[in-house]
Fold this protein.
Amino acid sequence: MEFCGKIVVVTGGTRGIGRAISLHFAQEGALVFAAYLKNDEAAESLEREAAALPGRISVIKADVRTSEGARAVIDAAAGDSGYIDVLVNNAGILRDSYLAMMSEKDWADVIESNLYPLFHCCKWGIRKMLSRRKGSIVNISSISAYTGNPGQTNYAASKGAAISFTRTLARETGPMGIRVNAVAPGLIDTDMVSSLKPEVVDSIIKASALNRIGRTEEVAEAVAFLSSDRAAYITGQCLIVDGGIA
Ligand code: NAD
């Protein structure tokens, strides 16, 4: 049990990729705090599923786009112990359209949902890692940051920023023993992908060397590796998990 007793925060941790990440850590003995925004049913079913695992998953309804929401999640996780071990910034949204037709709202919503949580959660999270000079942060980016998918200027801008943010924060916090990395998934089978047109999904699959869609567990494996001591000398990096597109 690689993460036995470790305190792990996963934003957007009750559905899709985040759900697989939460379950992976709980399977390895961690005490997971999974933040979510809306879907109470998914959150409750995750808690039930986790009851059979060696670790534990506690769900927290909070909006991590705001400082108050992010702080509430981090404080709940740190609790009496006053620290957290791992922070996974996974929450994110997609609002695709060609730039010429993109509404200001779709631009702002994506930047706000994908980028602001990194600022707020890392800020509060690092404060709960500093006392022990120990901790690991993993930010979920996207292959879109590298390949530039048409219709995703807002999304690609937010996910590219996540990589620059990761590299810079890693330099700030490295001397304090805190590692910061990113994972850039390709096309992964979640609700988010069900909003894409079937022809778009097909073309992305065909562009991949492995010629298939990815599984959420395959992203969770990469996140767990970067969070663990096996990656003790890795920081400021982005690990691409895309079946060979980029
Ligand atoms: P999903 O829509 O299935 O789940 C997203 C989760 O984020 C939900 O649980 C939602 O409640 C939560 N969330 C969104 N905004 C939030 C907020 N403000 N506060 C708290 N929680 C919030 O999405 P997914 O496909 O599992 O994607 C997870 C991450 O992976 C996202 O950052 C996404 O951009 C990234 N990603 C996904 C794919 C893919 O193909 N699915 C590819 C590359 C990157």
The beta strands are 7-11, 31-36, 56-61, 86-89, 135-140, 178-185, 238-241. The pocket of nicotinamide-adenine-dinucleotide is lined by residues 11-12, 14-18, 35-38, 63-65, 90-93, 113, 140, 142, 185, 187-188, 190-193 (CB under 6 Å). The mean pLDDT is 97.
